[in-house]
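Q: Could you predict the 3D structure of TonB-dependent siderophore receptor?
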Amino acid sequence: MIRIHLLAGAAAPCMLLAMPAAAQTQNTSSTTSDATTTQSWTGDIIVTGARETYTAPETSAATRTDTPLIQVPQSVQVLTRTLIQEQDRRTLGDALVNVSGVTPTRSDEVLFIPPIVRGFPAEVYLDGLSVFAGNQQAYDPNSLVGIGRIDVLKGPTATLYGGGIGTPLGGVINLESVRPTDKAGGYLAMRAGSFSTLNPYGDINVPLADGIAARITGEYQSNHSWIDKVHARRWSVQPSLSFQIDPATDLVLQGQFSRRSNLEYAGLPADAALAGTIRRDAFPGSPIDQPLTTNDIRMGQATLRHAFSDRLKLTVSGRYYSSMIDEQGSFVYPGLFPTGTVAPLYDVFPITMRNRTKEATVDANLAGDVDLLGGTHKLLVGANYDWTSFHSAMGLFVSDSPSGTIDLSNPSYDLRYTPQLPVNSYTDDRFTTFAGYIQDQATYGPLHLTGGLRLTSLKFVENSNIGVANDKTYTHLSPRIGATLDVVKGVALFAGYATAFRAPFGFIGTVVPVPETSSNIEGGVKLALAGTGLSGTIAVFRQTHDNVVTADPANVGFYIQSGRQRARGVEVDMVWEPTPAFSLLANYAYTDTRDDGVAPGDRLIRVPRSSGRVAARYRVLHGPAKGLAFGAGISAFTSRELTLPNTIAVPGYAAFDAQASYDIGRFTLGASVVNLGNRRAFDPYSYLGYPVVAPNQPRSAYVTLKVQI
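A: Sure. Here are the predicted structure tokens for TonB-dependent siderophore receptor:
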């Protein structure tokens, strides 16, 4: 006889999942509940139901095994689907403000710079696999509608991750897609608001047959901007299909088709913008006949999971990714050519760029539980293959004459864009990675040990018509070691050490470069106090980055490897949910950065010394106002440097946001406001290395109508 036990927290509804026996060894998630069904091999099935929260008790991203966060010897923060939806976060950069120590990338500059974690570049992965979007590996999803959660792994994460040009130096931001389930349902929604924003989206799940289900998520948005002339469109469709092949095997097929198009914005000269001598919303270019910059992405992925037993499981994932980026831009760059203009008059230069990326990546691993040496061990052995082709071509001011001159204090926008074709510089690169890794998670009573090694062979072929060609194979061993110690139930101490390396992508110099490397040591306290609803991490860390690539001050357009940079600090990430009605998120980061290369003692660019956020949500669960919910938050940053050596910085600021929703049967009416106090400030921006800034978003309001189907 099979006995079924239903477990749920106080005031949390239970959910019994109708599952084939196959799924009894797998975690199953839905759009409305974090639920797990497991089977003990004595015949008991335990179904655990949990209400939607801002916390996730486990992560598979940090170890590629289902591991309680409190047992991971690394600072890991999880942004749940509930948090993303309730805060009306539409882009990855918007969502990442909820994590300490992260400097997000604006979507309009994503082609130039990746997100920064603890002072150094991080990489964005999708479902545990690399996404090489070209130029800094800065992948930004066109939609978060199909994302179930976001795991932010801080510090070098080389043991389990790699591909393209190496392993992540600063951290991994792993996006986990929603998958088909055996429960029919979904929703359609329409969002509209400031700057002519029109944003329909939806998520529909349909069981097709016994053990077969399909899901499709999609989104479209068109909008203008608070910046003159700028407008954009984007769409994304993500279909998926799941098969329960037999009681121990499942296969998930996923696809993504997306396109982003926008009038490319190059940022304002920082000195004049911060001095207030030019218009903050001016477009610094030649918008007449300037085509939109487009980014087309196509990808397909297959994931096969097979349980040989309840103690031995195989996971094989593979993806093919393709992107086509056609950039057309115009920008101001004082001093590029001495034509005698003086601010607020600026010469405008056109630029044309073409990027083509193809990537095939496969990861296979075998996880097994064994009792050994007086403890329990969760062993993981895996292999990874990645092949990436990247072609980039650029046409930049084919003559030394600009398109014309613009007065950014009173722009008239009468300059015409001239395509810079044929291109006059190019790179044609191939990167091939073979890697093997092993990991052991050992438990001896209250002590949990994690150790791992990754051996990577990266064949790096980078050809360019400028600089020195780089044709070399790098071999690197990346270790990781850490431990957590349960002090009392729900409280643990942790410490960890990890390293990473990557080839110097896009390096144009007079000598062949060596790999960039990073290392991180951290420690702190982790909380998972179920009785009080308090969970989170307090961490101290020290991270270094060696063989840093910086601009060559003696050769414009060339690079050198300057030496070491480092960051150290304290981070706090907390969530308090004492009842189902209330959620409070708070984070803070103190990040002290230093350069020891071209500018000894100076701070690293874009990274605030202090930053933080507090956000709360209250839900009415009973009475005549049942279904009403409202929330608010504040995000704040201190000043951020724009140049290295430090010559100019963007002042810090704080901005409020607010949200509200009301459930009426199958319908939900929502509203959100960005920058509620209409704080006028600037953010660091990236465009061709010149210090520029972009105005922050002014007060903006949006309404959403969602219907469950």
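Q: Anything worth pointing out?
A: The helical segments are 81-86, 92-96, 270-275.
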